[in-house]
Fold:
Amino acid sequence: MSTIKLFEKKDFRVFVDIATNAYPRTKIITEEDKQKAAERYQKMQKDNSTKNFYGLYRDGKMLGGMLFHDYEMNFARAEIKVGGVGFVAVDLLHKKEKVAKELITYFLQYYKRKGTHMTSLYPFRPDFYKKMGFGIGTKMSQYRVKPMYLPKGISKSNIHFISENEKQNVMDCYNRFYEKRHGMFKKTLFETSSIFTNPDNRIVGYKKNGNILGYIVFNFEKDDRESFVVNDIHVHEFIYENREAFLELMTFLHSQDDQIRHIVFDTQDEYFHHLLFNPTNGTNNMIPSVYHESNIQGVGIMYRVVDVKGIFETLKNHNFGNQNCKLKLNIRDTFLHENDGSYIIYIDDGTAEVKENDQYEVEVSLDISDFSSLLMGVIDFKSLYRYGQADISSTEYINVINKVFLTEEKPMCTTPF
Structure:
């Protein structure tokens, strides 16, 4: 029988061995490296009430562990709580023994008990978590752009290198941006500090009247052939509060053309290619008949509702498209059986309320994973219906249900965990 509990001091060093075997690219190799990592994780838990390590034990032996994150997310301008999980690691000797399944089950039930009705993670295998009810989030696109193809504004006079003693200013800038973008996670000072502790990072910001109104976090990447004169800039975070900050930061990147081969952007902005003078990525790959490769894409962040009734209560002040309907929502949830079932939702001028009766106008059925993506605004209802992923009792209501779950923009998340 398994026991799952919060790490004690002695557990961190044990977990490091499990984690370094599960994630060998962390390059934590020597005993000194492992001890420093254990101390770092212990300090993280001690100093941050929002980050906690949990381990799974059988017969007193740790077989796996994970890291919980208590987040606040901007859901269409409303702040809601989200439970995040990362660093899920299983002992190599105990793979295929349902350790990961038990860890994730505990994670979901933990946040449900806390009254946090939305959870999120980055999957090591999307299909594994899809079976557990997680829905796919917004795709990430990676563009490789020659600096000369970026916009060149009239000035970059407000661009400066940002030092660690300005981290509060950086956090304030990020959180003002967070307040305006659906899906963003609020940043803490601890998370902001981690930007500066990575020696490879460079932080450049737009400063005006002493305030940072935009910044980029980037590092230099070597040419594959190890030529010391050929480098790329990889932009990992791009935050801006207004058009002026955006254009000056772009002008800064444009000005690197003499020494930088490509600027690499990781972005969830589906319109980013419209910004570029030449949106192709230089591979010369062609999609028939004549479509030039512009970027590569990947699926990453996933979302999961752990309490359907609870999430509607959390979103009681959210406007569901100004619609009016009496909806019976049938949710298939084979992983959290208490979530599986039917819910009567009355939507009155966009305000949704769960009712305890059986009177409704239209019935919608779908899996919890697709419902989670739909609720987040990753995909619309019409597409789910067209793909056969959702059913509706009367097609006359398709437009209504589509508007109920539409968000102004797809969720954006720049927080790694």
About this structure: The chain has a mean pLDDT of 96.
